[in-house]
Amino acid sequence: EQLNRLSHDVREVSQNLDQSLSKVVHPVDPNSIVASTFAAWRPRYENKEVRLKIQVADHLPMLNVDAQRIGQVLSNLLENALRHTSGGDEVTLEVKAEKNWIQFVVRDNGEGMEAHQLPHIFDRLYRGDSARTSGDSGSGLGLTIARSIAQGHGGTLTASSEGRQLGSTFTLSLPV
To answer: How confident is the model at residue 5 (pLDDT cuts 50, 70, 90)?
Structure first.
């Protein structure tokens, strides 16, 4: 099962980097992407007893994107946040407009990252120090795929953290 997932992830990264990944682009309300992603992840968060908060600004403009692919990026970010938080912790998905961009911000108060990890977090097969020792089953390709999807939509995906045990913030920015 893990080899199948890795094979699928490697194929997807290659397609993204070659820009041959298929996209079905059409006008989409950011609220609908958030609603479907929230519905999919809420039970997993409840099972781990991690609070998932959603904050969506009013009157957001439509995005011209592949809703399924953007949902895939948000799912990856929520999966990582859940993996690196403990019961009683909190993850927030905030959606807001910043000039001509819509930003999806996933913020957790979990493990966080050290400064030396941040430049590598989107590299292929990179896994943070805690992932190497925690029995984490991730392939090390999820964030690479997520960033390439963001870039394929003319956007960006960035990460920040104040350090260990201070949480992490991932920001997906997409042009309006």
So the answer is: low
